[in-house]
Amino acid sequence: MGMWSGKQDRQDGDQEEVQSTRSTPSSRRNNNTREPDERQPLLRQSRPPNSDGYLDPDDPAVSPYNLWSVRILRFFTVFFLMISFVWWVLLLVSIFISPPGMHSRGSGFFDFAYTCLTLGILLVALIFFTQPAKALRISIAVVLVLLVIDMIIILAVSRIRLEEGWVGIASVVWAVFIAAWCILTDRVVAYGKKEEEERLTGRAETRRTLKEWLAVLVATIFTVVFVIIALLMTSTLGIRTRDSTLSLYGDRVYVDGDKYQVHIACVGNVSYTGKQKDVTILLEAGEDPLEYDFEHWAYSAYQNGTISRYCYWDRPGYAWSDNAPSPHSAGMSADALSEALAKQGEEGPWILVSAGSGSIVSRIFSSRHLKQVTGIMLVDPLHEDLLHRIGSPSRGFLLWAWGIISPLGIERLGGALFKGRTRQDRVYGRNAYQSGKFIKAQLQENLVADSLSKNEVVSARNIQSSDTPVVIVSSGIKTRTDDEWERKQRDLTKLTDNLVSWDIVNKAPHKVWDTLDGRTIMEKRLKALINAASKTQTPVQVD
Asked: Which residue from 59, 40, 192 is spatially nearest to 131, judged by alpha carbons?
């Protein structure tokens, strides 16, 4: 009995000890009634609690990831990042090669910029996922407001809506959604972090370690940069909205299966001399929009009676014309011009007057309209053997980089605010080179200049009629300073067997018409070309 009594006493003591270990202080009575949940396995693996029953604030188990809601939000954030990256790759590729259905009549740089901004916001949200901060939410909220303004502008302004297309609209809508999502995610994580700290440590942690403060500082710096980028993009959209109100002379005409529009205009009426239809001068710009190049020279020649009629157009991406799908060669531009003229009812006969790199397009056009082209005038033209100069990889990279930052509109905004630049300056004037459309057009020319375009113009030279009258007017400055340019100008005088004249204007730059001597010689030689062309022109029966 005594032995059994002692054993029984020990069992009773053990039960009391077990009960005492299972009992909790009054400060933990809330946890004593809590139902088991998914956080308990983490707590069992953590280090023992403090004497008051709570975990240390630095314990790894004190984490917002304990909540299913936080983990689900992180999963979807990673998922959205993957979607955005795939979209980013598609947009990057479309700058160089337009996937089916993804052609943008605008530059394509704005939708790419929105996607870059989206990726940046998502990356910051994921990297600093467990360090929510009010500063982050406020700065991203500012970005959200600016993106909503951009979305409204794109949808409300018809010209911008057409240029951006469904790709641009989808990009800005997605950016708006992601900004709102990141604000929501940061707020939920902050709430979950507070809840877990209160449950596991007894109070919400109001202090941050130096590492946490640095993380918040870096995240805030990034989001402030996003605010600046979004603000500049919104301002640039405002500039584009203002520029879209500039009226144009002529019409925009759909070409290439109605994929995009090109601007074309004609000055003067169709007239006949006897049984012959008077020639129409067809102008082709050089490296700048034709309205800024030498259309004013043609208008002056029209006013003084040297020519009776002329037409001009803007190559894809220049001035009022949309960008064409990529890749786009000089021969494709010639085809677009042919289609636009046909849709406008223009039949020729033509005398082609072109300058610089535009001479490549004119020569291809001439080879494809041998009966309608009765004369060619080339003003300091680019030779096909020199296409590598505009097709160099380094130039292409610089154009691409310049296009990527073009949505920020730093130069355009600075010109409008501090230099008094007008809509005319930005659309077709001195600042036209700053627009994303123009940069995209230059990049397209660069990508195929020394390959596809060169093959097209070489073929055109072989096809060109040998009796077509040709006039060459060259820059004296260019020929003196560039021996290779002078040799290639001389070679172009052999384009046909009917060279009317070759003039080197002594003090004229590449844009020969910028000097009085250049304009005078150009007008004089054009008149001689018209006379020479009239002798080879086939009579046209007057209706």
From this structure: 192
